[in-house]
Amino acid sequence: MPKYILALIALMVCNIQVSGHVDKCTDWSFKEADSIAIVYQGYSVQNLKLLADRLTRPLKTEKQKYRAIYTWVCLNISIDYALVRLNEQKRKKLLGKPQQLSDWNRQMANKVFSNLRDHKKTLCTGFAYMIRELCLHAQIECKIQNGLVVNNLQRSTPTILPNHSWNSIKIEGNWYMSDPTWSAGYYDLRNEVYVPAFDDTYFLVEPQLFFQDHFPIKQEEIQNEKNEKAWAFLQRPLTYIGLIRQQIVLTTPLMFENTLGLGEKLLVTFKTLKTTNSEGMELLVNQKKIVTKPKITSQGMIELAWLPKRKGNYTIDLKVSDDYVASFRLKVSR
Amino acid sequence: VPVYLLLVFLLVVTCFPANAKGAICVSVALELSGTVTTDDGILPGATVHLKGTEIATVTDKNGEFVFPQALEEGDVIVFSFLGFKTKELLITGETPAKVEITLVLDDIYIADAPLTNEKLQPKTSVASRFWQKVKSVF
């Protein structure tokens, strides 16, 4: 039976369940593309042209074709965490040694791509290359971007050497950002294990949203330790996948570390591209819900305000519809 | 319409302009084959495809290929392999039937940051951290 017929049968299934994972399929319009990706689950990566053709031939639009490619990659390629740790350690060791870092990149490249082809395991660079190669064969314009992302692990040893790769995709004349690595799963810090979990939040993201938590660095700027914008990016609040899922554009604060005098009010302002409904928006102070009544400012921004009553060090979390969006520290002094 | 007029018409339509030597050339289908290599040697598994179509092949364990369709002037053959810069070959009247293509590794920067499930924890005082350590011992 032709595989596209199997894809149509798969369309009848409401929730996509693959290898025991319950995956979030948030958009019914991608059911066909996602179903095709599932039909080709486990397909070989030895002939990427053939794979791209199989995934995209039945689909009509660029968006649908890219969806099939993206879903296939996220469901079939997993993070090689041993390689991640090895590269992380080496990168820290070679900080300030550009030639040796370049030699290391070249040496690692062979290992990254052979692991990817033979075992379908890789790190984010491999994910980005796999997406690019499949898009090339599907005639979708796609580029790779390297740059910075911030989590608390990176904050402990600040460096502006790029630590992540993702893709920019041209769909119907518009450029979007896509992060297949972050869509395929996450690293559970407590249990120290990689968890495959497909989440399409980073499928195609507007640049305005995406560049709040991804900072691109051009190839020629990689060794530039004086990149002020990159250093400024590292000082931003810690953000989570909820920032993108809830389509929040954060306006204030824009620093991770903040200070206020006693008697001064903390103002957290943002806008959401998703909805004008301001339900479910709250501030937590040291993990306790403190502010739950947002107001709309005269500029159309959403504002949550808190007046600290005592001096001290506080951790502030912004939550929207049960999603953690951003966190930062606040020091209140006399 | 007389058949001979139709044949003359077809001949005119398929003729190419005169070349530098003054002779009139008729486009010939090219049966392309060859080898794909890198700096490290032969490259098995490289994709060789006709741009804008689904017609393709991959190089065998010796890095060799035979393109499955005859090619014409103006066709573009794309050579690609994961992690390497793509190379294009424009088919002209001078393209040899057997080619050797070398692919070059892309300017790859190896990056690795996975998404984590961390949340920012409130800062604790020195006394609180000491007490937690004592509790964990008992």
What does this protein look like?
The complex is a heterodimer of chains A (334) and B (138). Chain A has 334 residues and is an alpha+beta fold. Chain A is 34% helix and 28% strand. In chain A, the strands form six sheets. In chain A, strands 11, 13, 15, 16, 19 and 20 form a six-stranded mixed beta sheet that branches. A four-stranded antiparallel beta sheet of chain A has the order 7-6-5-10. A four-stranded antiparallel beta sheet of chain A has the order 12-14-18-17. In chain A, β8 and β9 (193-196) form a beta hairpin. Chain A is globular and about 65 Å long. The longest helix of chain B has 12 residues, at 3-14. Chain B is of the alpha+beta class and 138 residues long. Chain B has two helices and ten strands. In chain B, the strands form three sheets. In chain B, strands 3, 4, 7 and 10 form a four-stranded mixed beta sheet that branches. Chain B has a four-stranded antiparallel beta sheet with strand order 6-5-8-9, with no helix packed on it. At the A-B interface, α3, α5, α6, α7 and α8 of A face loops of B.
Major sheet of chain B:
4 strands, mixed
Taking all Cα atoms into account, the compactness measure Rg of chain A is: 22 Å
The helix tally of chain B amounts to 2
- How many separate helices of chain A? 12
Shape of chain B: elongated
Mean pLDDT of chain B: 83
Q: Give the integer mean of the pLDDT values of chain A.
A: 87
Poorly predicted tracts of residues of chain A:
13-25
Assess the beta-strand content of chain B as a share of residues.
25-35%
Q: So what's the overall shape of chain A?
A: globular
Global structural class of chain A: alpha+beta
Question: Which residues of chain B sit in consecutive blocks of at least 5 with pLDDT less than 50?
Answer: 17-26
Q: Please report the total strand number of chain B as a whole number.
A: 10
